[in-house]
Predict the 3D structure of the following.
Amino acid sequence: MKTYFILIILLISACGSSSEGPKGKVYEANGAAIGGYDPVAYFEQSEATLGNPQYATIVDGVTYQFSSIDNKRLFDSNTDKYIPAYGGWCAYAVAESSIKMEPDPTMWQIQDGKLLLFYDDWMTSLTGSLKEEWNTDQDGYKKKADDNWVVVEELE
C-alpha cells in the first residue's frame, strides 16, 4: 500500500512540474549539475556540500562545481566514479515510473560505488522518504532503475 501511495506522489509531482517534464540527460539547477552540489564530497567527506563556481569543470557540456580544488582534481582524474547515476535524477522515480524527477541533493546514498539521489518534499515525508523505500529492496530497485534508464535516455 505504501508503494502505491508513493507512486501517486511521484505522478502528481511529475505532472505538476511541466507539461513536457524535465529536460536533459543530467539534472541541472542553478547553472550546474546536482544543483551546484559537489559530487566528490558525497564520497570523500560523506556529506552533501555545495560547490563553489570558482572550482568548476565541464563534462559533456555540463558544469560540475566543487567545494575545494582537491575535490575538483579528484573528479577530473576519474569522472566516471563521481558522476551521479541516472544523470542525477531521482533514482526511485527512474526505477518505479521511468521518469526524471528533480532530486533533493541532500537525500542521497552511495550504492555499488555510484552516487544515487532521491526526491523529497513534504508529501513524501507523510509516508517516509523515497530513499527509505529504495532501501527496502536496494538490489531490486537498482535493477529496475538500470533497465529503465536505458529507455529514459532514449526519450531525449
The first strand starts at residue 28 and ends at 29. The radius of gyration is 15 Å. Helices lie at 2-17, 39-44, 69-77, 79-82, 91-97, 122-125, 130-134, 138-154.
